[in-house]
Input
Amino acid sequence: MRSIRYFVQPGGMLQGRLRVPGDKSISHRAIMLGALAEGVTTITGFLEGEDCLATLNAFRAMGVHIDGPEQGQVTVHGVGLHGLYAPSNPLDMGNSGTSMRLMSGILAGQAFDTVLTGDVSLSRRPMRRVTEPLTRMGARIEATESGTAPLRIYGGQRLSGIDYPLPVASAQVKSCLLLAGLYTDGVTCITEPAPIRDHTERMLEGFGYPVQREDKRTVAVKGGGRLTATAIDVPADLSSATFLLVAASIAPGSELLLEHVGVNPTRTGAIDILRLMGADIEVLNPRLAGGEPVADLRVRYAPLHGVRIPGELAPLAIDEFPALFIAAACAKGVTTLNGAAELRVKESDRIQVMADGLTALGIAAEPTPDGMIIQGGTFSGGMVEAHGDHRIAMSFAMAALRASGPVSIHDCANVNTSFPGFVSLTHNAGLRIAEQTP
Ligand code: S3P
Output
């Protein structure tokens, strides 16, 4: 892969009205359910990032006809739950944990064998969290000795529903099992240890598939139903918007209006945490788009102060911590996060990699097993390693707004997995960012 470096001059402010790219979680699910539905599903606002394209290409390789993406429009000619064909090659999930984990659930229910592969980062990430409960459902899956990809998934197995209390607060695991649940005899019932994103449940209902939500923590599906094609309007991704919420909050003079952002309450922890820190964020024109809450977000610069992040917000902001750590570094006082050990098994070890980068830029950051303690201070300029993690790269780009010298960030190519056009969009809004290919 091409090695890309960001070079960001210090200072500046962000202004304007922007729409960040489509929601990654919703885009993946729209392709998956569209492919397994009966009829033609139209998707607008689809995220044309490499992760969602990995999902799209996997279904093409299994015989699904898909038009696009073209400017966020995709048309999926669904083949029904039992209409996929065996792919002739292993399916490459690239850098995408969501693709690999959710696809495992779907593929466990097929009549044919498949192999799922991924890049170096994905091949290190834990997969037992899906292979173990899928095996309990009757699936046959082989992983490496350490429980990582490549995964060989044997078809033709008879799956049964299980009652499964999730040992980790993971929406990918929940979604994997719900998708496998479509192929079972009986009911698959999942209990969450804490609220986690519920896009799969909402979208299943949008495709006309009954989902029982017994109480706030339990969700169940019964196998043997069918999905009916629909139209999906993918909102802008709050996870991508968070880089801009943080940027405008830390750079004096900034004001941004972020349009049509998904504000599903299982995702809005970052807004809550920033507000606790003193951020000036308004949620305007709340509305529903295809079963998902959406709003416009106005954010203006405001001085931030350190906080102890409430434990219950950790799963609701799990992808946003790299950006939130930048906000914490610019805040007055100490910010403490606990209960977020999952950060260590994301695209990189986000606790260690963020602590290293913050330290390299002159901030006192102490990594802990499940979080971080950050003392607000002043960023020096310097060089940081993104370790191929898209969210690390984008977070440190924002740090330059408050740095005393230029910030150079290495290994940024994977920003294209979730936020294609990041450099031009942020540059046009006022970030002094340039991309370099050394
Ligand atoms: C996702 C769930 C989260 C999140 C990831 C997307 C999803 O992962 O970090 O970016 O679409 O279900 P976990 O389920 O592993 O927490």
